[in-house]
Design a protein that fits this description.
The chain has 201 residues and is mainly α. It is built from seven helices and no strands. It has a single domain, classed as Four Helix Bundle (Hemerythrin (Met), subunit A) (Up-down Bundle), CATH 1.20.120.1760.
């Protein structure tokens, strides 16, 4: 499906097995999406308390939920009329919680806020441009998967070099902020070029 975020792990044995198990247990895609927000909220608390390994685990769990909800919906035929809302809104909330948590842990809440706002902008531009008729664009350099993997790496770095945690998180938040700006520009430019090319066809 062209409108789905490309995730290579989706085709792995463990992901398919987990999606099958979750579907068999009766969990709906919408419930799994909400669970991703719960993991992100817990992760925010872990950031604030300096529990970086736990924060990394929460982000990983959130990403797994984000992948499995779509697999249960599509591969196990459990789509719902409100599925698109549950697919997008929890993602935006989860991004905000994780990035704001990292900002507070780095003693840079304003930077966490900027990173959160610009992460929202990348998703808004993708949705806006797709609604205008352009292909769904999940490109980076700082799409959701990329910024969350970078944040996971930062958590692991903070756990190893705890005295440098403020600097590690601050640096990563700057990278995410700048990367989201570039991503937003790239997605908008791609969509404009595509839409303008259509009038000549």
């Amino acid at each position: 499906m062209a409108d789905r975020r490309p995730i290579k792990e989706r085709g792995t044995f463990w992901a398919r097995a987990l999606a099958k198990l979750v579907a068999k247990l009766g969990f709906t895609p919408n419930q799994i999406s909400v669970l991703s927000v719960v993991f992100s909220l817990v992760g925010t608390g872990c950031f604030v308390q300096g529990r970086y390994l736990a924060a990394a685990l929460c982000i990983v769990s959130r990403l797994i939920c984000n992948m499995i909800d779509g697999m249960v919906a599509v591969e196990h035929n459990q789509k719902s009329p409100s599925g698109e809302i549950f697919n997008e809104l929890p993602d935006r909330l989860s991004d905000t919680f994780s990035l704001m948590g990292a900002g507070y842990a780095a003693h840079l809440p304003q930077l966490g806020l900027w990173a959160s706002l610009l992460a929202l902008l990348t998703a808004y531009i993708r949705t806006l441009c797709h609604g205008a008729g352009a292909p769904a664009d999940f490109s980076g350099p700082m799409a959701k998967q990329q910024r969350m993997k970078l944040l996971i790496g930062a958590c692991l770095g903070c756990a190893i070099w705890s005295k440098l945690s403020v600097h590690i998180l601050g640096t990563v938040l700057v990278l995410i902020t700048v990367g989201c700006l570039i991503t937003s520009w790239r997605r908008a430019s791609n969509a404009i070029r595509f839409l303008e090319s259509q009038k000549h066809d």
